[in-house]
Amino acid sequence: MLNTERQAFYDEISDTMTVMQYEMGAVAQNIIYAKRADEVGRRALHANALLELGDLLAQCAVLSLKIQQETPGLYFAPSWDELVRVGRERQIDRMERIIAGEQRDPSMSEG
């Protein structure tokens, strides 16, 4: 049987994963509903999906840190700084392609 401290750790991880499952469902619902929405609704649903994805990313980072703290020497994911750096690089890259006309910005598409 697990000691109380270890059981609390696993309970916390399990609870966080359950919340993350609900957030994934919310992202999926927003995207499904956006397919049938008008332009204003679609933009609002996409914005909400992005907020949910941001929550999921933050929760993944927290879970990774908790697991790494529980198991010294084990490395599961890049640091938060690394995730942010890569995300910014991809966003800058995407914007440069849009400006250069290589890729059309989906937020500018019509109906």
Description:
The protein is mostly helical and 111 residues long. The chain has helices at 4-34, 39-70, 80-99. The chain has two domains: 1-72; 78-111, no CATH class. It is 75% helix and 0% strand.
Short account of what is shown:
The chain has 111 residues and is mostly helical. Helices cover 75% and strands 0% of the residues.
Helix content: over 70%
Q: Which stretches are low in confidence, meaning pLDDT under 50 for 5 or more residues running?
A: 105-111
The total beta strand count reads 0
**How many DSSP helices?**
3
Beta strand %: under 5%
Number of domains: 2
The general outline is flat
Radius of gyration: 19 Å
Q: Termini distance?
A: 59 Å
| Secondary-structure element pattern, one letter each | HHH
Give the biggest beta sheet: none
Query: Please, what is the average pLDDT?
Result: 77
Return the structural class.
mainly alpha
Protein name: PhoU domain-containing protein
Organism: marine sediment metagenome
Protein traits:
single chain; 111 residues; mainly alpha; PhoU domain-containing protein; 0% strand; 75% helix
Break the fold down into its secondary structure elements and pairings.
Elements: H1 4-34, H2 39-70, H3 80-99
